[in-house]
Amino acid sequence: MATLVQKYGGTSLGDADKIKFVAQRVAAARAAGNDVAVVVSAMGKTTDALIALADSLSSSPEPREMDLLLSTGEIVSSTLMAMALREMGVPSISMGGAQAGIRTDTAHGRASIVHLDPARVRQELDAGTVVIIAGFQGVNDEMDITTLGRGGSDTTAVAVAVALKADRCEIYTDVDGIYTADPRVVPDARKLAEIGYEEMLELATYGAKMHPRSIELAAWYKLPVLVASSTKDVPGTLIHDTGSDGDNEMEISNKVRGVTYERNVARVTIRGVADNPGISARVFEPLTAANISVDTIVQNASTARLTDLSFTLESRDVTQALEVTRRVATDIGATDCVAHDHLGNVSIVGTGMQNAPGFASRMFRALADAGINIEMITTSQIRITCLVDESQVAEAVRILHDAFEVGEA
Q: Domains in the chain, start-ordered, CATH in brackets?
């Protein structure tokens, strides 16, 4: 008997009929002899609707209250799923994150799981009960409900699977696997049968379907994760430790495995920053205190011991970040502080790129020939990312997918 953790996204649970369909899939997995725990997201656009409702009542909703409000979406899904299963004669029980033993830190809106006690979940599974867990949430030491940020139900599912020592975590969504690019943007994108944790983490960080923290957790514990369709019975993509026996595609001359993108990116630039020890700490410590997550950081070479310091972040945080950095800029004697949103990232990802010359120049030439200006460039060992105007993101993805022939098997 295997232990499976299945996660279903909001589009898979959009109405009563969809919930019934998912319940049939869960029941089939249990009938096959498996212990099954299920993690659910909020139905459809519930989270967006709750945010809009809060914004209509408050210009600046308090983070604690927002977390409590938003957690209700997943509670609704979990209880309805349990009801649907019971109607089918399948013993089931719904649990909120706290009831499932999920403890987090105190960072409302983007909390991290610090401990997960699976005792109650395990007890119910051993009794033959399907456990339905509300994703995206936990409880901190003050017994306040916290949420894990957008896509946090993926992290919940992987964390539960790790705690239960499950055989596999299965992520069911509105797409049937991980593609070489978003098929809604690139119609000839190719689905990958398998992918290693490292490449998947880069894809997830820069726009692919999975939540990056869930991939980090799965990689650390070597937990296999299947990403598949919640509506179609077709093979998905297995994320696992490929090692030296991984997909042979990793060894061919074209080492770009995927082209991914991210919209809603903003850039903040502090100009005329003194090039002295400790300045960067003085800039970024207040941002950390304000719970603002920064992605890319670029510091220009100094001239007359002055430099410009730029960083990117999610557009939703740019107003607050600009308020913080303007105060910092005044304190450190910088000359100006400006923000630019309506940007996006486009990235090529592939193991082995760092050992083969030409990928960067080929990427830059393809974008230049298309008249797409690069605002900022960042790299890792297996990724090259360019910051471009948000209106050109989709075109950039298609161009790079063709330039690197990623869609060819």
A: 3-174 (3.40.1160.10), 258-403 (3.30.2130.10)
- Relative to beta strand 336-349, strand 297-299 is unpaired
Per the CB < 8 A criterion, the answer to whether 166 and 118 are in contact is: no
Reported confidence tier of residue 104, pLDDT bands at 50, 70, 90: very high
Helix (H) or strand (E) holding 23: helix 16-31
What would the pLDDT profile of 238-248 be if each residue is shown by its tens digit? Answer: 999 876 434 44
Chain-centroid distance, C-alpha 29 = 26
Strands 35-40 and 3-8, how do they pair? parallel
CA distance 187 to 293: 33
Number of alpha carbons in the 13 Å side-chain half-sphere of residue 384: 20
Number of residues in the chain:
409
User: β-pairing, 376-380 with 306-314?
Assistant: unpaired
DSSP character string of 220-257: HHT--EEEEESSS-S--EEEE--GGGS-GGGGSS----
Which two structure tokens, joined as six digits, stand for 391?
């209106």
User: Edge to edge, what strands does the sheet with 113-116 contain?
Assistant: 113-116, 102-104, 137-139, 145-147
Q: What is the pTM for the complete model shown? A: 0.82
